[in-house]
């Protein structure tokens, strides 16, 4: 088997319109396709990330909450690369998004920080 790239990342949200606004308006991801799947009473929104990857945003009626433990096994966070982290943090702050203090990765000397989506999914910004 030879994996060539990440095809998509799927996120289930609790409030579809709120999450759609967050990922499209605030994060600036481009909608590719939006469908309502009547049989599941669920929306699926495909979002373009930099022309390479796709986030699939799903809505389901009454999804169960996911327990979150900082160092639990499993997917830890979603990370986006940015050119200027200070500019990105200023923008998010202007959008009323709480952002952690910028830190420096001791292995790469690159700046990074975290914030959360409307459901508390940790999102990292990592300066290239």
UniProtKB/TrEMBL annotation:
Residue intervals of the VOC domain: 5-128
Record keywords, A-Z: Metal-binding
Any GO molecular function: metal ion binding
Listed Pfam families: Glyoxalase
NCBIfam families in UniProt: PRK11478.1
Protein name according to UniProt: VOC family protein
């Amino acid at each position: 088997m030879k994996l060539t790239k990440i095809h998509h990342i799927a996120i289930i949200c609790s409030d579809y319109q709120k999450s759609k606004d967050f990922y499209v308006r605030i994060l600036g991801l481009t909608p590719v396709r939006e469908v309502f799947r009547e049989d599941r009473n669920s929306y699926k929104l495909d979002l373009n990330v930099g022309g390479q990857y796709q986030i699939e945003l799903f809505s389901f009626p009454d999804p169960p909450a996911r327990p979150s433990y900082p160092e639990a096994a499993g997917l830890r966070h979603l990370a986006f690369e940015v050119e200027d982290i200070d500019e990105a943090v200023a923008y998010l702050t202007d959008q009323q998004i709480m952002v952690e203090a910028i830190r420096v990765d001791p292995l790469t000397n690159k700046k990074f920080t975290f914030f959360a989506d409307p459901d508390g999914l940790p999102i990292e910004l990592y300066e290239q």
